[in-house]
Write a structure and sequence with these properties.
By secondary structure, this protein is an alpha+beta fold. It has 3 domains: 177 residues, no CATH class; 35 residues, no CATH class; 119 residues, Glutaredoxin (3-Layer(aba) Sandwich). 48% of the residues lie in helices and 14% in strands. The chain is built from 11 helices and 10 strands. The strands form 3 sheets. A 5-stranded mixed β-sheet has the order 8-7-6-9-10, covered by helices on one side. It has a 3-stranded antiparallel β-sheet with strand order 2-1-3, with no helix packed on it. A two-stranded antiparallel sheet has the order 4-5. Pfam families: MauE.
Length: 370
């Protein structure tokens, strides 16, 4: 009776978790690709430079691996080719377990991206999750007789469900890449108050680890006794800290971060000119021209890029982009918007609109949001 119960629990949990994990990644395939690039860079330094040759294909790996998770989860739940599916799940989970252990033990990649930006896990939490998942799959392998495959006609139905899962998974990933994620879990989502998110939500509290006479002591207040030697300051409520800590905008004349929060701003984000979609600037330029001709309400266009001034000066003349440009960190720009280029509409620092370059808004759409 117990093996049958364990089998049923493991069957539901493993299948549902793989579907959930895959769908979360497919919601943001570019974010998953960025995480894969991190792993490729780490492995190129620690194992072989051949991993760098995989970086151009990170997006394809992202959609393939995420779709594979969904398909295997569906296949398990409908009990399609159970033996094959279980061994594929075992191999995939074993691989993920190695990745998360390596990241945790050597502190290489601090967030595995297992559940995208929806659920953030520490490296050791990710490893623990994979170990539990591995145990559940082993239980399924051992108790496989309690997980019978469908009969002949049922097998055809199960096969149709798996085929549907393949088609939908790939379609979701491709659509999310060609537009923005269906669900935005990042700090720069529509409705976010950026200057507010750059402040702590409550006063931060710390514990102070001090040493004296070979012993360690913990204080909630910094000790006045100067014989204690400071070792470490540990935050007690990090969840109350700023949600955004790295948003900075500048040019050769200085810092312009605060200016980005004044009035209505249309941000044109260009991650890197060498990888941007140059053809999309024809439509973007039409929008900028419309905004210039219609000053009620006034919207100030601003370009943010991580490219050098030399590169961007050449590029903006090539695409006839007539707007002042500023610099920002490349990682921050990729976090703000996945599209390259992408558009954001800010009203006094609040994100009121966000568009992929395939979905450039009309003047009327912009005005309706202000």
């Amino acid at each position: 009776m117990l093996p049958r119960l364990l089998n049923k629990i493991a069957w539901i949990v493993v299948g549902a978790l793989f579907i959930f994990s895959g769908l979360i990644k497919l919601n943001d395939p570019v974010g998953t690709a960025i995480k894969l690039e991190e792993y490729f860079e780490v492995f190129s330094k620690d194992f072989s430079t051949v991993f760098l040759s995989l970086k151009p294909f990170a997006l394809y790996f992202s959609i393939f691996l995420s779709s594979l998770e969904v398909v295997l989860g569906v296949a398990l739940l409908v009990r399609w080719r159970t033996k094959l599916v279980l061994w594929l799940l075992f191999g995939l989970t074993l691989f993920f377990t190695f990745l998360t252990f390596y990241s945790a033990y050597y502190n290489k990649v601090t967030d595995c991206g297992c559940f995208g930006d929806f659920i953030k896990l520490t490296p050791w939490q990710s490893f623990s999750k994979d170990v539990v998942l591995l145990v559940l799959i082993v239980i399924l392998l051992v108790t496989q007789p309690f997980l019978p495959s469908f009969a002949r006609n049922g097998s055809k139905t199960a096969g149709l469900w798996v085929a549907l899962a393949v088609a939908l998974s790939v379609a979701i990933g491709v659509y999310a890449y060609q537009h923005e994620p269906f669900f935005d879990f990042r700090a720069y989502k529509v409705g976010a108050n950026i200057p507010q998110l750059m402040k702590p939500s409550a006063p931060l509290r710390y514990q102070y680890i001090m040493a004296k006479n070979g012993q360690e002591f913990t204080f909630n207040e910094y000790p006045a006794d100067t014989t204690y030697k400071f070792k470490q300051m540990v935050p007690q409520n990090p969840e109350d800290g700023p949600k955004i800590t790295d948003f900075n905008v500048w040019n050769d004349q200085g810092d312009f971060t605060k200016e980005m929060f004044l009035g209505n701003r249309l941000l044109v984000v260009v991650h890197n000119v060498s990888k941007t979609d140059a053809e999309s600037f024809a439509e973007i330029n039409r929008l900028l021209a419309s905004l210039e001709q219609n000053q009620n309400p006034k919207v100030v266009p601003v370009v943010l890029t991580s490219s050098s001034s030399q590169e961007f000066d050449v590029f903006r003349h090539e695409v006839n982009l007539a707007a002042p440009y500023f610099f920002a960190d490349a990682t921050v720009l990729k976090t703000i918007i996945r599209s390259n280029p992408g558009l954001l509409l800010w009203k006094n620092g609040v994100v009121v609109g966000k568009w992929h370059h395939n979905d450039v808004p009309t003047l009327q759409e912009v005005q309706e949001l202000l």
